[in-house]
Amino acid sequence: MKTLLAALATLLCANYLHAQITERPRPAEWQHLIKGARFMDRFLPMEGEELSNGTWGADSICPRYVDNGIEVKDLSIWGGNILQTPDRKYHLFVCGWPENSPKGHMFWPHSTVYHAVDDELDGPYAIQDTIGKGHNPEAFRLDDGRIVIYVINGYYIADSVDGPWTYAKFEFDRRDRKIIEGLSNLTFARRPDGSRLMVCRGGGVWVSRTGISPYCQLTDKRVYPDVDGRFEDPVVWKDSLQYHLIVNDWLGRIAYYQRSKDGVHWVTEQGEAYVPGISFHKDGYVEHWFKYERPKVFQDAEGRVVQMNFAVIDTIKWEDLPNDKHSSKNICIPMNKGLLLSVLNTQPITENTEKIEVRIQAEEGFLPGRDVDVSSLHFGSFTEVNFGRGARPLTSYTDGNDLIIVFSGKGSGITPDEFAPKLIGSDKNGQLLLGYARLPYVDYNPPLLSARRPVYDKEKDSLEVTVENYGLGTSKPTTLRVLQADKLIAEGQIDALQPYASTKLSLKTMTVPDTENDYKVEIE
């Protein structure tokens, strides 16, 4: 009987492990994407010099760069992102656990957070000190200079990267909304006023005034792509133009890339953000890690991503056992950071616009008048440009060190909803050029009006509705409507609200609401 149960357990385990991989079908249109359409086209060859020899690792990742990122012989490493200090040193905050732990990789709930340091962005990082217990860290710097290291269920905070560290817990105000898939694997982006936008694993969007003050939930459903996916490991960031979000389907081993002007309303670009096989050397050799998870970004002064970090493992997690040849580490992959672009047209671009002028800004080591292959450029909505369509250049001229491209207004695909049209092309050596352009007539810090759940006052026969502005701009007077079962039951006016201000409306009901059913609140 014991033998039969053991065989059954082995079979079930094998089936469970196999179930950790599902091949996701790609949309047919993705076959026609050009280079530069997919976010994963931005990955550049890894940096490193020392190749593995006789150490751990499946055949698929041997040899590999052992001096890239962080690799510690006796530790399984996971998660982690990098901050830079004024002395130009790089500080990587990762977690790990003993490789010989009885449960192997599945000992991760007992992770310790480590502070590792190096003089180079790509490593190799060496552990300098221990911060405390925790898993899936993400570090960020508050506007007052303090360092916060988020871990599942809490955070550490210190005046500097060297500590001492104090452990605390965030406060969350769900604002009458259901929390989407729990509050774990949080990721953070700084907003222009120093506040923080946070995305949780389930795809809910939250905002904190300071980064450690209570986080308030704005959304009531996930903002991820509307596809079949088992999502985790979101990473959100903001550059000088827009917000970016990547989320990973761990079951399908495919990640998706999204953009937003306000951090709440997102568009999803076609193509994979990343898949296994993105870690390659200059000679084309690929380190075929089984899984790439916990992506993090390192940004330049403009907020562009110059490097991504991944937690990688060479096998299915449940097959990484103590004292075996398998383990995990954190790797660094440099990125094509993209161009600095701006549209010069002051009037909204429409299908009747004859010409679109785009400035390509010069940077250190890059003179667009010298380096850009103008004839290769496509410009417009990503829905057109990603497929090799879009507006084409008519002429170009220099303005100082910058280059102005004059595109035909035809075929851009730019609609009134467009907030960051895309450019794809190449330099004169055939290397990929891409970027997103600022539109001078777009408000990149709009108001974000968000209502709490209406409360019915039976005595007054009215609905009390609290509305708050979580955006960075002052709202205009607007209309609020309350519906049940698609039937309008109350309506009122919201006066202009400053950022973070709130107002309470008392709305006369048109019919007695059914307090057992939920309300739908619409704000124009």
What's the layout of helices and strands?
Blueprint: H1 2-18, E1 75-84, E2 90-98, E3 112-118, E4 126-133, E5 138-141, E6 147-151, E7 154-158, E8 166-168, E9 172-173, E10 187-190, E11 196-199, E12 205-208, E13 215-217, E14 231-238, E15 243-249, E16 254-260, E17 267-268, E18 291-299, E19 305-313, E20 328-334, E21 339-343, E22 355-360, H2 368-371, E23 378-380, H3 382-385, E24 393-399, E25 402-408, E26 422-426, E27 432-438, E28 449-451, E29 455-457, E30 462-469, E31 478-484, E32 487-494, E33 502-508, E34 520-523
Parallel strand pairs: 9-13, 21-27
Antiparallel strand pairs: 1-2, 2-3, 3-4, 5-6, 6-7, 7-8, 10-11, 11-12, 12-13, 14-15, 15-16, 16-17, 18-19, 19-20, 21-22, 22-25, 23-26, 24-25, 26-27, 28-30, 29-30, 30-33, 31-32, 31-34
Offer a concise description of the structure:
With 524 residues, the chain is mainly β. Helices cover 5% and strands 38% of the residues.
Structure, explained:
- The structure is a single chain.
- Helix content is 5%, strand content 38%.
- It is mainly beta and 524 residues long.
- The strands form eight sheets. A seven-stranded mixed β-sheet has the order 23-26-27-21-22-25-24. A five-stranded mixed β-sheet has the order 9-13-12-11-10, with no helix packed on it. A four-stranded antiparallel β-sheet has the order 1-2-3-4, with no helix packed on it.
- β6 (147-151) and β7 (154-158) form a beta hairpin.
- The N and C termini lie far apart (67 Å).
